[in-house]
Amino acid sequence: MTDIFSAIQRSAIRIKDAIDTKDIGYSQQENSSGETQLQLDIKCDMIIEEEFSNVASIHTIASEEKEHAVMLHENGKYFIAYDPLDGSSLIDVNLSVGSIFGIYENAFGAQNMVASCYVVFGPRVEMVFAHNKVKMHLLQGKDFEFVKEIRLNEKGKLNAPGGTQQNWKSYHKEMVDSFFAEGYRLRYSGGMVPDLHQILLKGGGLFSYPATSDKPKGKLRRLFEVFPFAFIFKKAGGEAIDGKEDLMGLAYADIHDTSPCFFGSRYEVQRVKEVYANN
Ligand code: AFP
Fold first, then answer.
1. Is the pTM of this model over 0.90?
2. Ligand 1 centre and the CA of 167: distance in Å?
3. Which of 106, 132, 252, 264 could form a disulfide bond with 206, CB atoms 3.0-4.6 angstroms apart?
4. Could you tell me the distance, in angstroms and rounded to a whole number, from the CA of residue 57 to the centre of ligand 1?
5. Would you call 11 helix, strand, or coil by DSSP?
6. 230-264, pLDDT tens digit by residue?
7. Is 89 close to ligand 1, i.e. is its CB under 6 Å away?
């Protein structure tokens, strides 16, 4: 596992340099979700594939920016699904973005996940790696230094409601408003990595990206985005559901499958369960 941890660190340092370039324009290519790729999306994808191709324990990789998975080492045992630069549409407005990694053993699938990791590219570069515990590291020069273990409280103060509100179900809107009525503060940047990082570091709250009339299966991808954060929130003492079911109990058919998702501390996720159970 340490060889994968090191490869992610090397990738993060190179991605940080790539982000600091002038060329943040769009390419002529689309990813398998029909999104026009930034030059930067393609560059970050190449950086990660290069670093992982030197790690013999990695059998197969799958990128959000690629249609199909790629086998790297036949004798490897780890399968890694990653989003090279999540929130890349925020780069041109200079908001924080991130990379997300799900590390699976012997095959892709929530039940095979053994570790997960994300890197936040913001005013500082921080990496959170979850294996047995959830640990945060800060980039200092060319090294990531351990900072602290992350644990969620029972209840938080932050509310990050994703999705286009006009396409929300009425009971979902009522639920989101019920937290604001309780004094929760709105914290939503449109970047899943900084939004969830804030809830983890501030001890709790709720991030939601529900099924909506325009995205009935949600927007966020199971293997690349949803399962990695579900693993981290649960290891940190929180919960992660699709409205009803534990996200880590979900299967996937296509590597680009999406799911509605709710990540948070226990108090908030319990309310989601109650509201969605009645609808
Ligand atoms: P991009 O990678 O296209 O910027 O999308 C970011 C993202 O995947 C995730 O980081 C956000 O939480 C979510 O989509 C934002 O979606 P909405 O713009 O529909 O709220």
1. yes
2. 15
3. 264
4. 31
5. helix
6. 999 999 999 999 999 999 999 988 999 999 999 99
7. yes
Residue 204 CB–ligand 1 contact under 6 Å: no
Query: Which runs of consecutive H residues, i.e. helices, occur in the chain?
Result: 2-19, 39-52, 170-181, 192-201, 227-235, 266-277
Ligand 1 centroid – CA 180 distance (Å): 22
37-41, 82-86, 201-205, 241-245: the lowest-pLDDT one? 37-41
The answer to whether the beta carbons of residues 226 and 233 sit under 8 Å apart is: no
pLDDT class for 25, splitting at 50, 70, 90?
confident
Residue 100 near residue 90 (C-beta atoms within 8 A): no
Report CA(92)–ligand 1 centroid distance (Å): 14
If you take atom 7 of ligand 1, which residue's CA is the nearest one? Answer: 87
State how far the Cα of 202 lies from the Cα of 264, in Å rounded to an integer: 11
Cβ(87) – ligand 1 distance below 6 Å: yes
Residue 75 tokens read as 């004798």
